[in-house]
Design a protein that fits this description.
Elements lengths: L11 E3 L9 H28 L6 H30 L3 E2 L1 H34 L4 H4 L2 H27 L8 E2 L6 H5 L7 H35 L3 H29 L8 H25 L2 H22 L1
Helix pairs in contact: 1-2, 1-9, 2-3, 2-5, 2-9, 3-5, 3-7, 3-8, 7-8, 8-9
Length: 317
C-alpha cells in the first residue's frame, strides 16, 4: 500500500495482539470469551440494580454507571480487533482512529473520576451514616455521575485534537491493538516532547485528584473502623470498601504504568500486555469483584434466577 509522505488522513495499520502470537486463534477465542462474559456480567449488574428495590441506593447507582462505562469501554476496542482478525485486515481509517482515541480517553477518564468519587460515598456511609441520606441524596449522585462524565469528556476533547494534528511518518504502522496515545506519538515526524510533557502533567493531575479523594476518604474510614467496638461492624466496613480498593488498584496501577513511568521502562510488548489488562480484563473483573464479595448483589441474582426458573416451570404446565 502506498502512503503519501506525511499524508494527514491516510489509513493507519494496527499490528495488533495476534501478529506475534504463536497461537493467534486461541488468543482470539479467549478474548472473544472475555468480551462476551464482560458484556453479559455488566449488563446483568445494571439490570439487577434497576429491578431489585434493595439495590436502589447511591452505592449501587454509582456501580451501575461503572458497569455502563465498562460496557462502552470494552466495546470501543475489542470488536474492531476481533473483526480484523476474522477478515484478515489491520487497517483503520484516520477518522476511525480519531473516534476510537476520543472514546477511549473519555471513557477511561470518566472511570478514573467515578472511582475516585465512589470513595466519597463509602466515606459518608461509614463515617457519617446518620447524614448519609442527605449527603448522598439523588441530586448529589447525579452530580457525581455528571462530574465523572464531564471530566472524561474534557480529557477526550483536549487530547484528541492535539494528538491527531501531528504529521505522521510514512509507515503508518501502529505497534498496538488500538489507537492509544503513546503508540501514535511514536509515528510522528515532528518533536512531540513538549506535548508529551504537557500530557504527562495532565495525566498526573487526572490521577492525583481522584487519588487524593480516595486517600483522604480511606484514611478517615480506617480511623473510624479502628475506633469501632463491634467486630461485626468492622467486618462489614472492611468488606464494603475492599472491593472498591481492589478495582481502584487494578485500574490506577495499569494507568500509572502507561502514562506516568518513564520511557525507559516501556517496551511494545509490555505496553500491549498492560493495555490489554486494563482495557479487556478490567471490565470483566469489575462486576465479578463487586458481585462475588457482595451479599446484596448475590441475593438479588439468586432472587432473579428463582423468578426465571419458577416462570419457566409455570409455562411448561
Amino acid at each position: 500500500m502506498e502512503w503519501g509522505n506525511h499524508s494527514m488522513y491516510a489509513d493507519f495499520v494496527l499490528l495488533g495482539l495476534f501478529s506475534d502470537n504463536r497461537f493467534p486463534w486461541l488468543l482470539f477465542a479467549l478474548i472473544l470469551l472475555v468480551f462476551i462474559i464482560s458484556i453479559a456480567s455488566n449488563t446483568i449488574m445494571i439490570i439487577l440494580i434497576h429491578m431489585d428495590s434493595r439495590l436502589h441506593t447511591p452505592m449501587y447507582y454509582l456501580l451501575s454507571q461503572l458497569s455502563l462505562m465498562d460496557i462502552l469501554y470494552i466495546s470501543t476496542i475489542v470488536p474492531k480487533m476481533l473483526v480484523d482478525q476474522i477478515l484478515g485486515q489491520r487497517a483503520i481509517s484516520f477518522a476511525g482512529c480519531t473516534a476510537q482515541h476520543f472514546l477511549y480517553l473519555t471513557l477511561a477518564g470518566a472511570e478514573f473520576f467515578l472511582l475516585g468519587l465512589m470513595s466519597y460515598d463509602r466515606y459518608v456511609a461509614i463515617c457519617n451514616p446518620l447524614r448519609y441520606p442527605v449527603l448522598m441524596s439523588r441530586k448529589v449522585c447525579m452530580l457525581i455521575v455528571l462530574a465523572a462524565w464531564l471530566g472524561g469528556s474534557i480529557d477526550g476533547f483536549l487530547l484528541t485534537p492535539v494528538t491527531m494534528q501531528f504529521p505522521f511518518c510514512a509507515s503508518r504502522e501502529i505497534n498496538h491493538f488500538f489507537c492509544e496515545v503513546p503508540a501514535l506519538l511514536k509515528l510522528s515526524c515532528t518533536d512531540t516532547s513538549t506535548y508529551e510533557t504537557a500530557m504527562y502533567v495532565c495525566c498526573i493531575l487526572m490521577l492525583l485528584i481522584p487519588f487524593s479523594v480516595i486517600s483522604a476518604s480511606y484514611t478517615r474510614i480506617l480511623i473510624t473502623v479502628y475506633r469501632m467496638s463491634e467486630a461485626e461492624g468492622r467486618r462489614k466496613a472492611v468488606a464494603t470498601c475492599s472491593s472498591h480498593m481492589v478495582v481502584v488498584s487494578l485500574f490506577y496501577g495499569a494507568a500509572m504504568y502507561t502514562y506516568v513511568l518513564p520511557h525507559s521502562y516501556h517496551t511494545p510488548d509490555k505496553d500491549k500486555a498492560v493495555s490489554a489488562f486494563y482495557t479487556i480484563l478490567t471490565p470483566l473483573l469489575n462486576p465479578l469483584i463487586y458481585s462475588l464479595r457482595n451479599k446484596d448483589v448475590t441475593g438479588a441474582l439468586q432472587k432473579a434466577l428463582g423468578r426465571c426458573l419458577s416462570s419457566g416451570r409455570v409455562s411448561t404446565f
